[in-house]
Amino acid sequence: MVKEKSKVVELTAEEKKANAAAYTGELVKKAHEAVLKFEGYTQQKVDTIVAAMALAASENSLVLAHEAVNETGRGVVEDKDTKNHFASESVYHAIKNDKTVGVIDEDKVAGSVEIASPLGVLAGIVPTTNPTSTTIFKSLLTAKTRNAIVFAFHPQAQKCSSHAAEIVYKAALEAGAPENFIQWVEIPSLDNTSALIQNTGIATILATGGPGMVNAALKSGNPSLGVGAGNGAIYIDATANIERAVDDLLLSKRFDNGMICATENSAVIDASIYDVFVEKLQVHGAYMVPKTDYKKIEDYVFVKREDGYGVTGPVAGRSGQWIAEQAGVTVPEDKDVLLFELDKKNIGEALSSEKLSPLLSLYKSETRDEGIQIVRALLSYQGAGHNAAIQIGAMDDPFVKEFGERVEASRILVNQPDSIGGVGDIYTDAMRPSLTLGTGSWGKNSLSHNLSTYDLLNIKTVAKRRNRPQWVRLPKEIYYEKNSISYLQELPHVHKAFIVADPGMVKFGFVDKILEQLAVRPVQVETSIYGSVHPDPTLSEAIAIARQMKAFEPDTVICLGGGSALDAGKIGRLIYEYDARGEADLNDDASLKELFQELAQKFIDIRKRIIKFYHPHKAQMVAIPTTSGTGSEVTPFAVITDDETHVKYPLADYQLTPQVAIVDPEFVMTVPRRTVAWSGIDALSHALESYVSVMSSDYTKPISLQAIKLIFENLTESYNYNPSTPTKEGQKARENMHNAATLAGMAFANAFLGINHSLAHKTGGEFGLPHGLAIAIAMPHVIKFNAVTGNVKRTPFPRYETYRAQADYAEISRFMGFATKGDSDEAAVENLISEIKKLTDSIEIDITLSGNGVKEDHLERELDKLADLVYDDQCTPANPRQPRISEIKQLLIDQL
């Protein structure tokens, strides 16, 4: 018997709409129930939920970045990671103290009371350009305001967007949020999205996406907080710092391949600097497209629409190389931003439109007034109300206000990269961090500011670039010179001293020296000793230290030894303090592991980290180094190894800085030669990396230089010193190296480090290499990687105005006498690398992975994992050159 094939019943358009209305209606119904449950929540409960969501998003930032690029084929993984961190870390920092529950303000004189209530159910439209970061951002705002949200994700980003929503939703539930306050359409379709935004139960639509979707939201019959096209233009004034303006412009255009709507689409350049500005753009990696190729690019990139030209679907977020190749245009391999010289009379042509890619139009302006007119014309054509920018010499120049008053834009950005500046927080405190940028009445929007938790107003903001106050933080007291350990006789408030040391400190009598000094005190001091710290201490060891501390209840912790003992003592004391506060349970290994994972979270700005370290109050800490390398005695850093994965995690917080450091050279006179070599190179890396860091300053650089000088002059002599036949010169060399290590620690405690340490942390853990050895192997490759010019992706940091790593390394080389003023910076850097090679040779260090037992197949097998770990290391954000993951892989391979 032949079985008939079942027929597929094709639904009519009306049936599809009915099904979509029923499906989304059920989602909205559940969301309303969640809003009702949210009503009884206190501000504290809401804030706990939001913090949990932010932390979960931050923890999964890089994973989501990979997923977004893999699914959409658009953008840059590293930049999507930055956006995800921005959406969690920066946004959380901005909103965490907002009052959003109950009475939020009261003026007894005026007799007014302001009470916050949720809007209700939100419809969240998420674009393919920012699929995960926008989801995180809107979810945090939803929870903070006790609303509920139903998302409609872009079909090309459904998986990564829904994963981002799932991550923050799960964290919120675990923190006590009501079920179904975050939901999303499982099967994306135009019918489902239309039904959602037209549902009468929707309070407000958060519409972020293409013009078609935004217009549909505005016409839905429901209130809509949408955004307009971003065709932002920047005016380069004749007085501008040209180097910085070029760097800022290219940094912005390269960021996530130009997908952020605030990215500059056109640059209007004063005629007096036009030629030199355009030349520098090309020197730094931009490419001037021949006019004969304009039509090819236009035809591929743009499509004619009612309001002008729009970017075709495949183009947004693609690289300049990819776009050119698809259009049949050849571009040199080292070029990525495509330049087009256009006539200001033809604004409205395709290439003057919003580009969402690394394409940039150039216009020449004869006067400031004409510059404003060109910017106004570009905004009027396509981008009204969004953003405009200016690069100018003096930010208090009256022309800045004139420019701001005359252009019709909600954001006027001064001296900063627009793509990152426009979203707020990173380069300015004048605007709230946000991924939904209102365009006001000019762009037919109901808000003119960066969407956040506050009310709706047309606010025009002039945002000036800012450098946040920096700091120098060190131990309250630092004692040095021979026999400075005698200060233990005078240290106040010591009744019960807990000593952390390694077995060598116990075996060779160094712990006894501590006990001798304490014994001299007029009042007897009780002591307890943990004397078995291993090299590369693990979390379980730090927990064991904390448990012994709890049993003893010390008022003073004395950490004695190399970096391992100091770091183990720091973290053990931290856990002990957390237990005393009730923030941790020393009897619960699982909760302690969870606490550690939270404390080890990567951050971009130490002041804005999601997890805060509590101030210790039970015990003061004294650090006495017995090796000359880590500088841990004066730093807020501690490195601990995960017992299960063997990955090293650097913790960083100023609560980890000891109150007292005793740098007594008597403790390093018998250090083994191999330890002298490795720790000395570690100290050199601290000094070098802190000098070129984006956070270096006039306060830290002199300290770095003095440390470098002492190390080059004394490391070889210190290495060759034989304590069995002591010499005055050898002893002095060891003393100088001890001081150098502490000085280097003082510098990097305040300027931070870079990828030399990121690489070493991960190769050391994976291949079992001592830290100093891993540092030495990576050092020349990192210097070569950083010391480049031209097309450089620099790490965003306001004080770091132009990329200067090569010049910084050259300054070090000239300071040391390795180069003269007449030598080029490139030659000076080469000489520095050569002198470092001589130094490592003199102390018998093989600076290759293969020479130290690492097999090529082992490296290849773990390459992808290691590259992600290096990128995610806490030391990476202060490196002057922001490494791409592909570049990290090459750096790892080059070390072999």
From TrEMBL:
<dbReference type="InterPro" id="IPR016161">
    <property type="entry name" value="Ald_DH/histidinol_DH"/>
</dbReference>
<protein>
    <recommendedName>
        <fullName>Aldehyde-alcohol dehydrogenase</fullName>
    </recommendedName>
</protein>
<dbReference type="InterPro" id="IPR015590">
    <property type="entry name" value="Aldehyde_DH_dom"/>
</dbReference>
<dbReference type="Pfam" id="PF00465">
    <property type="entry name" value="Fe-ADH"/>
</dbReference>
<dbReference type="InterPro" id="IPR034789">
    <property type="entry name" value="AAD_C"/>
</dbReference>
<dbReference type="InterPro" id="IPR016162">
    <property type="entry name" value="Ald_DH_N"/>
</dbReference>
<dbReference type="InterPro" id="IPR016163">
    <property type="entry name" value="Ald_DH_C"/>
</dbReference>
<feature type="domain" description="Alcohol dehydrogenase iron-type/glycerol dehydrogenase GldA">
    <location>
        <begin position="475"/>
        <end position="665"/>
    </location>
</feature>
<keyword id="KW-0511">Multifunctional enzyme</keyword>
<comment type="similarity">
    <text>In the C-terminal section; belongs to the iron-containing alcohol dehydrogenase family.</text>
</comment>
<comment type="similarity">
    <text>In the N-terminal section; belongs to the aldehyde dehydrogenase family.</text>
</comment>
<dbReference type="GO" id="GO:0015976">
    <property type="term" value="P:carbon utilization"/>
</dbReference>
<dbReference type="GO" id="GO:0006066">
    <property type="term" value="P:alcohol metabolic process"/>
</dbReference>
<dbReference type="InterPro" id="IPR056798">
    <property type="entry name" value="ADH_Fe_C"/>
</dbReference>
<dbReference type="InterPro" id="IPR012079">
    <property type="entry name" value="Bifunc_Ald-ADH"/>
</dbReference>
<dbReference type="InterPro" id="IPR001670">
    <property type="entry name" value="ADH_Fe/GldA"/>
</dbReference>
<dbReference type="InterPro" id="IPR018211">
    <property type="entry name" value="ADH_Fe_CS"/>
</dbReference>
<dbReference type="Pfam" id="PF25137">
    <property type="entry name" value="ADH_Fe_C"/>
</dbReference>
<dbReference type="Pfam" id="PF00171">
    <property type="entry name" value="Aldedh"/>
</dbReference>
<keyword id="KW-0520">NAD</keyword>
<dbReference type="GO" id="GO:0008774">
    <property type="term" value="F:acetaldehyde dehydrogenase (acetylating) activity"/>
</dbReference>
<keyword id="KW-0560">Oxidoreductase</keyword>
<feature type="domain" description="Fe-containing alcohol dehydrogenase-like C-terminal">
    <location>
        <begin position="677"/>
        <end position="893"/>
    </location>
</feature>
<dbReference type="GO" id="GO:0004022">
    <property type="term" value="F:alcohol dehydrogenase (NAD+) activity"/>
</dbReference>
<keyword id="KW-0408">Iron</keyword>
<dbReference type="GO" id="GO:0046872">
    <property type="term" value="F:metal ion binding"/>
</dbReference>
<dbReference type="InterPro" id="IPR039697">
    <property type="entry name" value="Alcohol_dehydrogenase_Fe"/>
</dbReference>
<feature type="domain" description="Aldehyde dehydrogenase">
    <location>
        <begin position="22"/>
        <end position="282"/>
    </location>
</feature>
